[in-house]
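Quick one, tokens below:
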């Protein structure tokens, strides 16, 4: 597949793929920093880990991830009769079709620290507790500053409970948190202007913010500066597909998750994988 060229005719540098080992390094780094920080660090860690793990495992575009709402999520069981379950994410429109509806599946992972179920459910609980507390306080006629204080207390209490759990055990045997609005955005800004809480403004985190979060977390994890410069919002999607191809997963299976229509587009990611992942020397019996 030919690379797109810039207006000056130059071939832009390819986004660096974040592979499985990178994801684990990022999650471990974020968790360690949160453990040494305050409640604000814990909220940011909860969001960023969920965003990174879900972004990687879903293999969807950053704009599709940013647009996820509570009503887009549901738990489904295997129709074949096994006990397997998935969290299904509805993808409402995409870059290639604004009217199409697709679905991405989030399975449980072997390691609870990187499990998209565990991490997403934790963040959904934070958002739901925050929003529902604000709504209840507002219904009781409390002023805005009192609403925020009540929400902060509720979120900190929840974070304390989450941090007391054994990180080696899965905690994804939970139902999806119930939010009052199906259209409530899942991913929220955390900034001084929103008192570092998951602001219920009705507007989701922008897809332009995702690469900024990735770059910041890569820097904190000690990634090489030259590599950080190549990290973009496409790095998670690219990383999933590159990793899957390097692990020998069939292109057709990858397409079911990533939403690609063309097999040659998926195969292109394998062509760009590091040479040591597809080197004949690995197959020599010496």
């Amino acid at each position: 597949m030919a690379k797109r060229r810039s207006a000056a005719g130059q071939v832009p540098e390819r986004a660096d793929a974040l592979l499985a080992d990178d994801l684990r390094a990022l999650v471990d780094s974020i968790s360690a920093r949160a453990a040494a920080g305050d409640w604000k660090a814990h909220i940011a860690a909860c969001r960023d880990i969920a965003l990174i793990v879900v972004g990687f495992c879903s293999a969807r575009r950053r704009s599709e991830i940013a647009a996820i709402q509570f009503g887009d999520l549901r738990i489904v069981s295997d129709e074949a009769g096994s006990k397997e379950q998935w969290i299904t994410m509805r993808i409402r429109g995409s870059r290639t079709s604004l009217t199409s509806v697709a679905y991405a599946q989030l399975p449980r992972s072997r390691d609870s620290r990187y499990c998209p179920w565990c991490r997403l459910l934790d963040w959904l609980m934070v958002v739901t507790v925050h929003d529902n507390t604000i709504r209840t306080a507002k219904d009781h006629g409390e002023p805005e500053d009192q609403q925020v204080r009540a929400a902060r207390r509720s979120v900190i209490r929840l974070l304390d409970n989450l941090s007391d759990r054994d990180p080696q055990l899965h905690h994804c045997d939970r139902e999806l948190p119930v939010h009052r609005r199906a259209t409530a955005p899942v991913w929220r800004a955390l900034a001084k202007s929103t008192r570092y809480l998951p602001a219920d403004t009705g507007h989701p985190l922008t897809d332009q913010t995702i690469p900024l979060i990735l770059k910041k977390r890569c820097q904190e994890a000690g990634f090489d500066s030259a590599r950080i410069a190549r990290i973009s919002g496409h790095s998670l999607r690219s990383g999933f597909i590159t990793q899957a191809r390097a692990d020998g997963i069939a292109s057709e299976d990858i397409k079911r998750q990533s939403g690609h229509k063309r097999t040659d587009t998926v195969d292109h990611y394998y062509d760009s994988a590091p040479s040591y992942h597809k080197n004949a020397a690995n197959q020599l019996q010496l």
